[in-house]
Amino acid sequence: MEWFTAPEYWLSRLVFQRALAGVYLVAFLAAALQFRALIGERGMLPVPEFVRRVPFRKAPSLFQLRYSDRLFAACAWAGALLAAAVAGGAADAVPLWGAMLMWAVLWALYLSIVNVGQTWYSFGWESLLLEAGFLAVFLGNDRTAPPVLILWLLRWMLFRVEFGAGLIKLRGDPCWRKLTCLDYHHETQPMPGPLSWFFHHLPSPAHRVEVAANHVTQLVVPVLLFTPQPVASVAACAVVATQLWLVLSGNFSWLNWLTIVLAVSAFDGSLIAEPPPLTAAPLWYDVVVIAVTALVLVLSYRPARNLVSRRQVMNRSFDSLHLVNAYGAFGSISRIRQEVVVEGTDEPVLHVGTVWREYGFKGKPGDPRRLPRQYAPYHLRLDWMMWFAALSPAYAESWFGPFVERLLENDRDTLRLLRHNPFPDAPPTYVRARVYRYRFTTWQELRATGAWWHRTLVREFLPPARIVRP
Hints:
Blueprint: H1 10-38, H2 47-53, H3 69-87, H4 96-114, H5 124-136, H6 148-171, H7 174-177, H8 185-188, H9 196-200, H10 204-219, H11 221-224, H12 231-249, H13 255-264, H14 283-299, H15 301-308, E1 316-317, E2 325-326, E3 337-345, E4 357-358, E5 360-361, H16 381-391, H17 400-408, H18 412-415, E6 418-420, E7 430-440, H19 443-449, E8 453-465
Antiparallel strand pairs: 1-2, 3-4, 3-7, 5-6, 7-8
């Protein structure tokens, strides 16, 4: 069925699949390197406790059947190895069914992780990766022409990512309509990058242009993805350009990179090179693709309804397999940046002159003289949740207490999530947390002090705590 395939997208599929496998690799590495302290058997939110409360049907996962830290590590590292192999072309070296199996294993393994990850895996880009990974199972390999239906589903997904984000902004904070949100956002975003200070200090007219361009890219350009070529390719390039701007201005895990990968799938590869000879796909494959397309269209009803709803929600999964989801980000913008600073002391008795030493985090602001680092697409889960904790203690109710307990024990796995432990030889006797107001310094302050941030104490977040032993 010639109408069923689109050979001209062979190059787009190749780049899409290799890049998506690269994102999978990053995701599995982040899981393998961080899980013990976050959701391990002795973690802040242990998986065994979660699966005792939540049935399989609500959170399908391999770890609902059995959990151990060793099994989780094996799954995460196996996923990383398989993702690296697929990124290197392994799925194109096997028959079609073998390629589909590889992609299905990647999806199932990561679904198993996300569905037991709780608060630490509640970010929209987790569902984004799973939805894209599910569609990749049915995209074929370099022995067959790309199926048109799956390519359209990828565009529908990209449309929801961009258009949903645009609508949530227009319906949300008035500063998006006034074009003033970026007067604050570069400074108050969850995890600034090394260039965020400079983006923040762009002139106000430049910030207005940024916001206006964002509205165009998220509310107009996505519609053009469904137009004939080469217009759709131009629209895809506009999405890529906007996402690269966001990559430069902050750390948003793999959200921007995965959006770029989705945009690549809409680009007509024949504009660059002619497709090689491709064989016709077997009938069973065509049937599977049609069935999957019908399933996705049925599951799209609630996400589509959410787009046009005045009560639009963002980053919501409507099914436990994360097959078709709602996306969006930053419907409201913080005007003031607050940070939770965690400190400890080894003094046995607290007094007015007690010396407190600060724990250093890898990504979130801490030491005012430390330039923010670039971590995306890698996801520092603890650092992100610390940003939410500063917004409201309610975001930290489930995990902050266990986090402090592990600091008081000098727990090795927890300390590996941090950049600096001020108590390398023995655990502290007390740990406390305080909220500071952070703002970027001015050019004059930077030259005079060498500090990228200026901070002032706001309030206490957690009074001095210690372990009381019988």
